[in-house]
Specification:
alpha/beta, single chain, Rossmann fold, 7 strands
Length: 211
């Protein structure tokens, strides 16, 4: 089994990446393969609402000028997904937001290939805005019918300069517990797959409120 973590920070070895690695260490200790995809430093276009991913049904975004489709091909094969972002103005970093909008919309438009995968979200920040950012990240996971792993507190860790998160002892524990819980969920899901049938997916009912 494999978990892919998405680093939405522009810093490859910053606090978000180091926090993801804390989780990855627990996954590796539990026999789960782990990889971090670094996306936060890339030029990623926002979703243009063209709807072509829903028309073409090719599990790709119509925008071909960046690496999003390459990442989609990797991520959809993973058993678990962790999305991590620094906090910018009490929200998701802009590049990460653009990426997540396209990644999860393509999934939803193509039958929901993240459905029932194990997912988690984490944020790293200097001081405040963590709860609102974590809530926004969790929207992607819950909308996609993912199995959301939790920890002993909200998945928030603090530090300003790279490496300072390693001084946040409670934050480190939160990441470790999250990693252990992901291992447990992944193994439980694997062990029960031939014993308990998944509920069938229902076609999406989409409504608006203009009459």
């Amino acid at each position: 089994m494999k978990v892919i973590a998405i680093n939405g920070s522009p810093k490859k070895e910053g606090n978000t990446a180091q926090s993801l690695q804390l989780i990855g260490d627990e996954l590796a200790a539990g026999g789960i393969e782990f990889e971090i995809l670094q996306v936060g430093h890339k030029m990623i276009h926002g979703c243009i609402a063209c709807g072509k991913c829903a028309v073409n049904k090719d599990q790709e975004c119509s925008i071909k000028s960046d690496d999003v489709n390459k990442w989609i091909a990797q991520i959809k094969l993973a058993d678990g997904i962790i999305i991590g972002s620094p906090v910018y103005y009490s929200g998701i970093a802009g590049t990460m937001k653009c990426f997540l909008d396209r990644l999860f919309y393509v999934s939803g438009a193509n039958g929901g290939f993240f459905r029932h995968k194990v997912g988690a979200a984490i944020v790293a920040l200097r001081r405040t805005g963590g709860s609102s950012t974590l809530d926004s990240l969790n929207h992607y996971l819950t909308y996609s019918e993912m199995i959301v792993a939790t920890s002993s507190y909200w998945n928030i860790i603090h530090g300003r300069l790279p490496g300072e998160v390693l001084q946040d002892q409670e934050g480190k524990q939160i990441m470790r517990v999250l990693g252990k819980n992901m291992v447990w969920l992944l193994k439980m899901k694997e062990a029960s797959k031939n014993l308990i049938s998944e509920p069938a997916a229902e076609p999406k009912v989409a409504m608006h409120f203009i009459r």
